Amino acid sequence: MAQQLSFEVMNLSLPFGDESRDPDHKRRVQGGVCTTDVVVSAYMGDNAEVFPKILALHVPRGAEIADVTYGLGVFWRKVSPKDYKPIASDLKTGVDCRNLPYEDASLDCVVLDPPYMEGLYRRENGHLAGSGSHGAFRTAYSNGEETTTGPKWHDAVLDMYFKAGTEACRVLRERGVLIVKCQDEVSANTQRLTHVEIINYYAKLGFYAKDLFVVVRPNSPCVTRLKKQVHARKNHSYFLVFVKTSSPRSASSHPSQNREQVSRKRRLQRP
């Protein structure tokens, strides 16, 4: 009796499928190695330290990358010229990121870092942000000129990102990569999550938000005039990594929906 019960338990513990009875069937072995040397999603440092990690993870080595807001080339300071070939352009070279001189579906990667502060889109030059000790903002994040047309305040920031993103979508090949730098801000005492607004709009263009990196500044911000603090002071910014897809769809439905469809199909195929 004991032998019969033992046989039944063993028989019930056998895995399903004829492959379990195949003597040549090989059990699946987990690949890879155990390591802590991985690219993570948040770094304390500057853009030049984080940007090479993003390229190494998401852009094939040897690719030509159109940096359409090159400016001072800060992103590229620690990128080896042997690894990637940047195509530098900005307003100073006569190229507007909203009207690129490239053919449709001709690029594998585009880098976009327009002015992210509403204060850099003012109607008068004297009202531009970045005065006094913050003058570097004008040279590093804008061309130092006033904005004479288009929306105002934070809507001017979004207008730039939306139009530049639409143009990037035009020139990128299928599965092309768009790397966007941005930062949230408080406008008219209202919290504006710029990175969320960009992700939502780009999803309508057909971009899948594949990755997000947080860059935290290593020093403390200096505030010279403060009566009462209402919002947390921004000391971080974002690198957003998008992939151009074949048709517009929401970012949430891109990979997860496909995985669910595959899982459902497999369940239906089971005997």
Strand order of the largest sheet: 1-8-9-5-4-2-3
Low-confidence residue ranges: 5-16, 126-143, 248-257
Overall pLDDT:
79
- The multimeric state of the shown protein is single chain
Query: Which class best fits the helix and strand makeup?
Result: alpha/beta
Beta strand count: 9
Helix content: 25-40%
What proportion of the residues form beta strands (DSSP E)?
15-25%
Number of helices: 6
- Biggest sheet features: 7 strands, mixed
Approximate shape: globular
* Cα Rg: 25 Å
Could you explain the architecture of this structure?
- The chain has 271 residues and is α/β, with parallel strands linked by helices.
- It starts with a helix and ends with a helix.
- The chain contains 6 helices and 9 strands; from the N terminus they run αβαβββααβββαββα.
- Residues 5-16, 126-143 and 248-257 have low confidence and may be disordered.
- It has helices at 2-12, 47-58, 136-141, 153-171, 194-205, 255-269, and strands at residues 42-44, 64-67, 85-88, 107-112, 172-182, 185-187, 190-192, 207-216, 236-244.
- The strands form 2 sheets. A 7-stranded mixed sheet has the order 1-8-9-5-4-2-3, sandwiched between helices.
